[in-house]
Amino acid sequence: MSRPEFRSVISVMLACLLTVSAGAAEKPEKKSAQTELDLYVTATEAWHMLQENSDAVLVDVRDPVEIKFTGFATPTRIHVPWMLADLSGWSDKKSSWAMAKNPAFEQQLSDKLAALSVAKNAPIIIMCRSGSTRSAPAVNMLAAQGYSNVWTVVDGFEGSTLKEGDSKGVRAVNGWRNSGLPWSYKVDPAVAWQPVK
Q1: How do residues 174-185 score in pLDDT, each as one tens digit?
Q2: pLDDT tier at 9 (50, 70, 90 boundaries)?
Q3: Residue 123 belongs to a domain with what CATH number?
Q4: Whole-angstrom Cα distance, residue 72 to residue 66?
Q5: CA 124, CA 149: separation in Å to the nearest integer?
Q6: Are strands 124-127 and 150-153 parallel, antiparallel or unpaired?
């Protein structure tokens, strides 16, 4: 490759990088939502990434029970829960059933990425309920495996909570579902996570 061709390739790569950075969401203030790769998108930005890049893969890391009652982003290609509802345990702190880490998460996600032949530099977009305690550690796990283009959806599937009014606390601000992006209560069986038997 000649020097002018090399400069041209570098210029195009730099322009693409700046375009992606300019459209990316801000780094979350909450430490649990931050990732080692510092790649953040809103649900709407994730949708645009999926439309513009056929190699981009949307991964949902929510519990199947959440999906059953709140819905599923239709372009999701991989579903592996980071945590699972533990119906045998109760969390006094949360006043709800406990959640337990999916012990097979890393292997299950790795297997699904391999089955789709996802390259280490392909855009992988990780989404949980609100973009915090599940998507961020999943991004970090993939980064440790050598994946370099892994994004977390900062507003997740359900989005942020309303801060005032009669519906205060309801997740009705931003997020995939509240942004008018394609979703359904029906899940493609080929994508849906299945417990290991």
Answers
A1: 799 989 999 999
A2: very low
A3: 3.40.250.10
A4: 9
A5: 6
A6: parallel
